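Lecture notes, part 5. Sequence design as translation. It can be helpful to think of inverse folding as translation between two languages: the language of shapes and the language of residues. The source text, in structure tokens, appears below.
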């Protein structure tokens, strides 16, 4: 079995734009080492976010702590009655990586959709290379 977490880092929220929708804000944040940036649509009714907040963002292939795939179940059935990665985070979404774009130098841009809520993450290939065109879980906590 493999490690369930594909990517994880700590970020500081730079901006929160809530002008377009009532319950969804587009946040921008950067990692502590300033190598990775992301823009994420967040349901702020479920997970309020403000400029200056610190948050930990992780992308995982499964919610099972042992890394086993949940192919035989739908995503809603994962973790019923068992401890999972979702128990350790405040905001969890399930989505699909749908696009990669090479950036300048050794950077890469990754686009992920969580049922219409989007994540755009840009950083060094070295840190984002575990990501591939597949379904992933977004896990966020403060």
């Amino acid at each position: 079995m493999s490690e369930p977490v594909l990517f994880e880092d700590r970020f500081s929220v730079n901006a929160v734009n809530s002008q377009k929708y009532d319950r969804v804000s587009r946040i921008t944040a950067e990692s502590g080492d300033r190598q990775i940036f992301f823009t994420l649509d967040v349901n702020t009714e479920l997970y309020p976010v403000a400029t200056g907040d610190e948050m930990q963002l992780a992308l995982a292939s499964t919610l099972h702590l042992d890394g086993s795939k949940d192919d035989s179940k739908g995503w809603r059935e994962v973790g019923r009655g068992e401890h999972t990665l979702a128990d350790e985070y405040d905001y969890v979404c399930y989505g699909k990586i749908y696009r990669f774009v090479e950036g300048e130098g050794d950077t890469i841009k990754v686009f992920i959709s969580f049922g219409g809520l989007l994540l755009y993450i840009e950083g060094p290939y070295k840190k984002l290379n575990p990501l591939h065109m597949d379904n992933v879980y977004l896990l966020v906590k403060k």
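The translated text above is only one of many valid answers, since several sequences can fold into similar shapes. The helical segments are 125-128.
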